[in-house]
Amino acid sequence: RDSSLRLVGSEMCIRDRRDLIRPGEAVSDTDVQQLIRAERRVISGVDLGWETNRSLRTRLGFRPSVLSWVRTDFDWTTVYQSDRSANLLEREAVGADTTLSLARNARGQRDWRVSMAVDPALAAAAWFGEPQEGEAPEVSQTRSLLRFFRPFSATYLDGVTSRFNRDPVSPGVGYQLGWGGVNDFRIMDGDTAATLTDRSTWTLASGIVLPGGGGVQVGYQDTDAETLDARSDRRTRQRSWPDVQARLPAVPMPAFTGIRSISLTSGITKTTRDIEFGGRAAQRRFDEDIRVPLDVSVAWLSTLVTSYQGLRRTGRGEDPTGNTEREEVSHRLSVNTQLLPPGALAQRLDRPIRLSLLAGYTAEESCRITVAGDECVAFLDQVRRTVNLSVDTSVGGFEFGLQLSFDDRQSFVGQQTGSTQFQVGLFGQLDFAAGSLPLR
């Protein structure tokens, strides 16, 4: 039997599954039958069985508004899941006797987030009011300067997750609703969680707005996570800085060039990850990844639109056995346009011919330097080239077209395997409206 409950305002969703089969019919072991009987619930003479599965989710959102130019958010989310059956049993030897109890798999998670955003443009309107003639030059200059800045935002996220595997635990209301500290998630009824993760993240973002639709967005993120499990303790520190995305204003071009405008977007993102493994054999692993994307779009005076997307990615890694170096370069070119054939053929078409061309090139290379050598030995060196062409139109309600695709892959390490595929496809679709049938 399943039941659900949802509260308005804040949100709570409960799903409870219970087994109504009598213990004597469910299992043959008399000891297990006794344990199931102890778990069954009877209310007003109605046998509700015993709970085998429960899922509980809660969410609370709070949006206080103190100042018109400051936005604050607070979100609280918890997740609880429990699963057990007559086959999940815990046997423990106590002296010459053996105790038997029902075990379960349980998972609890709590996340809360608080954020604040300050909008300089709204602050200028609140401080100085609407622009007026004759206002002081200092006020006018300050108002114009603040309007160039994007909102300054700061977000803090904190979360904890624990999981118990095949343990004879009885999670209380506090664990199910995500209350308590880290130790309340780690220890329950004398048992220690199989896995516990405690994490926190800071995110900062802002930027400037340029005339014509351009701008620069700057972000910073720092995540600190600690994981405790039966194998080892692990602490992970991940940082994204710098994280800059810049977009130049669309540049209008002279008419003789045949181009309406050109837009360009680029940036740089550097992500570092530092992992420390505890226990008797302490280990440290470091990874660095740098991405530099480039996006250029050209809008022509006709229906032709061309765009180029490029990415250069470099990285390195360090661990107790050696170092790793990585490099990736990718190019992607797309062409989209609509064409009308000359002569009377154009009048027979329901719409212009759509043509789309997409070409891609990706090269990846990774090598490894062991602690015993100085040479970086490649273990990944591959290239992929793709071309896709699509042409379609419609005549008299009948849509048809042609698709061509070319895919070439080649590896330059090991057995130097590769493959080349060329595909051609024709498609068509007829759309017609059916009339209504008279009913007597």
Short description:
It contains 7 helices and 23 strands.
Tell me what you see in this structure.
With 440 residues, this protein is mainly beta. It contains seven helices and 23 strands. The strands form four sheets. The protein has a 17-stranded antiparallel beta sheet that branches. The chain starts with 10 loop residues before the first strand and ends in a 10-residue tail after the last strand.
Count of DSSP helices? 7
Low-confidence stretches: 1-8
How far apart are the termini?
47 Å
Question: Main β-sheet, in a few words?
Answer: 17 strands, antiparallel
Question: Which features characterize this protein?
Answer:
440 residues, mainly beta, 17-stranded antiparallel β-sheet, two-stranded antiparallel ribbon, 7 helices, 23 strands, 10% helix, extended, disordered N terminus
Present the secondary structure layout.
Blueprint: E1 11-19, H1 23-26, H2 30-39, E2 42-43, E3 46-47, E4 50-62, E5 70-83, E6 89-94, E7 97-102, E8 104-118, H3 120-128, H4 137-146, E9 152-167, H5 173-176, H6 182-186, E10 187-188, E11 191-192, E12 195-209, E13 215-229, E14 233-247, E15 251-252, E16 259-277, E17 283-300, E18 305-319, E19 322-339, H7 345-348, E20 351-370, E21 377-395, E22 398-411, E23 418-430
Antiparallel strand pairs: 1-4, 2-3, 4-5, 5-8, 6-7, 8-9, 9-12, 10-11, 12-13, 13-14, 14-16, 15-16, 16-17, 17-18, 18-19, 19-20, 20-21, 21-22, 22-23
Helix pairs in contact: 3-4
